[in-house]
Design a protein that fits this description.
Blueprint (H helix, E strand, L loop, with lengths): L2 H17 L5 H12 L3 E10 L2 E11 L4 E5 L6 H8 L7 E6 L2 E2 L4 H7 E4 L11 H11 L4 H14 L15 H13 L5 E5 L7 H16 L3 E5 L3 H7 L2 E6 L2 E6 L1 H8 L2 E7 L5 H12 L4 E3 L4 E6 L3 H14 L3 E7 L3 H9 L17
Parallel strand pairs: 3-8, 3-9, 6-7, 7-8
Antiparallel strand pairs: 1-2, 1-4, 4-5, 9-10, 11-13, 11-14, 12-13
Helix pairs in contact: 1-4, 1-5, 5-6, 5-7, 10-13, 11-12
């Protein structure tokens, strides 16, 4: 049994206590308290695997009512952080509180507050999709009628209603991934941990999953998301924290991080691939910047300090050399470019990890 499956069982067993809590004024007081308490608060968090430092004094705060995306290259410490929040790992130093509970002193209270969908699907292959979700819902303390209704709702949200009666072992990888997420959603946790949730999904399934995550946040569940897809963070996250070598190197909304990069980008698509070098030289001279060339897409881009003035200069330069272009545009930096500027490496670049350990 994997650690993720063990945590799932622990969370669901303890979740029954959450659903049997008293209602009325006490529940209203709890909701008011929850709205004021940070969902996650990490101060000086450290974790080491042998000689590999996975978390090196990480500071991070996740406020209620939003998706917090944690980005970083492979080996930056993302998965280690998620596993520490989930109480699967014990931090070596620093403080970590989840929904107001200390992960060291109150791990059971933390588990009652969370749902987890890790990097690999943890479903029971010998049960149908519907049976998987209904079982988890019952373990969370829901009666049979509520378990059926909530499971049906989640299956519909994730586009699995038509295959709900099939055994999970007959599902494709993407379908199993969505079913695993559904098992985390059916219990309506306070905090949902999504560790690269859309890996292996086709574009349509990714969009459906994004819609389900947004709906979950609207119903009051906060989300901690790690992802390799920067467009995913851009679409979903209210706040982004970029970590590198186990430390937070930048934090803010997607717009704030783009503004922090500071420079707009002029982008040109050329008609003839042989003109790439000529266009790159012309754009580099516009603002004394280094032009980036992508041969596969016949695209040349350059970061510029100013906006429309530099675009006008670029048009004049291209007109002077007589190069045919399909289009030219001025745009703000993408999260990919922000990430590269802040960490000095693309998101997919992975440093070596110590054998037997992952600090992704």
């Amino acid at each position: 049994m994997t650690n993720e499956m063990r945590l799932r069982e622990t969370v669901t067993e303890l979740g029954a206590q959450q659903f049997s809590a008293p209602r009325g004024s006490l529940r209203r007081a709890e909701r008011k308290r929850d709205s004021m308490t940070p969902t996650i608060e990490a101060v000086g968090l450290r974790k080491r695997f042998g000689k590999t430092v996975a978390l090196d004094g990480l500071d991070l705060v996740a406020e209620p009512g939003q998706v917090l995306a944690v980005l970083g290259p492979n080996g930056a410490g993302k998965t280690t952080f998620v596993r520490t929040v989930a109480t699967l790992l014990r931090p070596d130093a620093g403080e970590l509180r989840v929904a107001g509970h200390d992960v060291r002193r109150e791990p059971q209270a933390v588990r009652r507050s969370i749902g987890l969908a890790g990097q690999s699907a943890a479903v029971e292959p010998a049960m149908t999709g519907r049976e998987n979700l209904e079982l988890v819902a019952r373990l969370f303390g829901q009666d049979a009628r509520s378990a059926r209704a909530n499971s049906a709702r989640v299956l519909e949200q994730l586009g699995l209603a038509d295959v709900a009666g099939r055994l999970a072992r007959t599902y494709s990888g993407g379908m199993r991934r969505k079913l695993d997420l559904g098992a985390s959603l059916v219990g309506a946790p306070r905090l949902l941990l999504l560790d690269e949730p859309t890996t292996g999904l086709d574009p349509r399934s990714r969009i459906e999953l994004w819609d389900a995550i947004r709906a979950l946040v609207e119903r009051g569940t906060d989300v901690l998301l790690t992802t390799q897809y920067l467009d995913e963070a851009d679409h979903l996250a209210g706040r982004i924290v970029i970590i590198d070598h186990g430390r937070a190197v930048a934090a803010g909304t997607p717009t704030e991080l783009k503004q922090r990069a500071g420079r707009n980008v002029i982008e040109v698509h050329v008609r003839d691939r042989t003109d790439l070098a000529t266009v790159a030289a012309a754009l580099a001279a516009v603002d004394h910047g280094e032009a980036q060339v992508e041969e596969a897409t016949r695209r040349v881009s350059v970061a510029v300090e100013a906006g429309t003035d530099r675009l006008r200069d670029a048009l004049q330069s291209l007109d002077a050399i007589g190069t045919d272009v399909d289009d030219i545009s001025l745009r703000p930096p993408t999260l990919d470019e922000v990430f590269l500027a802040l960490t000095g490496q693309p998101l997919e670049q992975a440093p070596d990890n110590a054998a037997g350990h992952t600090a992704a």
